[in-house]
Amino acid sequence: MIPASIRSKRIEYAIRDVVVPAKELEKKGIEVLKLNIGDPIKYDFKTPEHIRKAAAEAVMNSRSEYSPSEGLLELREAIVDKEKGYGVDITTDDIVVTTGVTEALMLIFAAALDPGQEILVPGPTYPPYITYPTFYDGIPKTYRTVEEDGWHPDPDDIRKKISRKTKAIAVINPNNPTGAYYDERIIREIADIAAENDIFMISDEIYDKMLYDNEFVSPAKIAKDVPMIILNGISKVYLAPGWRIGYLAIRDVDGKLEDIRDGIMRQARARLCANTPLQLGYLAALKGPQDHIKKTMDKLRERRDYVAKRVAEIDGLSVVPPKGAFYMFIKVDGCRDDKKFVLELLREKHVLTVHGSGFCPIYGKGHFRIVNLPPVEYLEEAFNRIEEFMKERKNI
Ligand SMILES: Cc1ncc(COP(=O)(O)O)c(C=O)c1O
Predict the structure, then answer these.
(1) What is the whole-number distance in angstroms between the Cα of residue 131 and the centre of ligand 1?
(2) pLDDT of residue 395
């Protein structure tokens, strides 16, 4: 056997550990109820028609050229306008259109981290915030977010974990997997820590318009004094995760991000560009009607409220109702092994969820994550089974 690189072997994707046994059950003809996938299209949501049409037209008009590495100018102009709407001042030169936020994370971590350098990420977190810093020989450190405080970050823990090797603090707001929303006060506190330590912030805003009650306030507006890289894309708000289009926007202060910008741009050129016709789809999404968002949120609200009610009725489970996104991070009282819990729930009741420790072994353990994306009837059947499982629960 010709060995793969050590670096590639460091990549772990905990979520896969539960998908493989689910597929085995399906191979045997067993229907598995899936509450694990953060993809609205897998349930009863559709990419809005005008966005699909724009992408189809771009393909039919043979917009098959390579775009500039940083993305089509007209799309970057639309992104500048979008960010202006949040009070964020950037230019088209500050933007790189990427193959989703996930590629943007790869570009940023590869540009920012030398071996042994650190990045602070929320605990629990979206797994690539752990995977990619590690892949690039850096060290991701999770800072505590506090369940009893609506899963808000603990600034004292952030302060404790900053070292001379720390390059950046990431915030994911609204958050995956907890659905927390950080208000202006918390963002300001984190920004103060970044400013005191002369490091930059990464602001993942992929769920920005998916708030149930609040109006999104951009961290870049709150913290004008802190260099920041903003991330967003088409996947969630515009219901097109498989299109793989997103962006990073460098909101610099006093040229502090110049070198990292150069590191990002070099990589962006080396990988040519993001998908051209689907950039035009994203342009239509940003410029066109936005009314699907309210409809999406109305459905998600009903589903969130249903799950919150069911969880409250089940002995041994509790959940902080999310303020945004479409995840619910459910606590299992006295759970000693959340992965085993999730695997048993799958084996015995054929309901697929994701173990909390897959999002952070320290701050995620004892929990499981579900999506409140499926219709209520689907959730009802899933929670009937979860309720039975909890009644019969063994010592897990
Ligand atoms: C916080 C967060 N950022 C980014 C992504 C993925 O974004 P993209 O599809 O643009 O790569 C996800 C997907 O679940 C996410 O939860």
Answers:
(1) 13
(2) 75
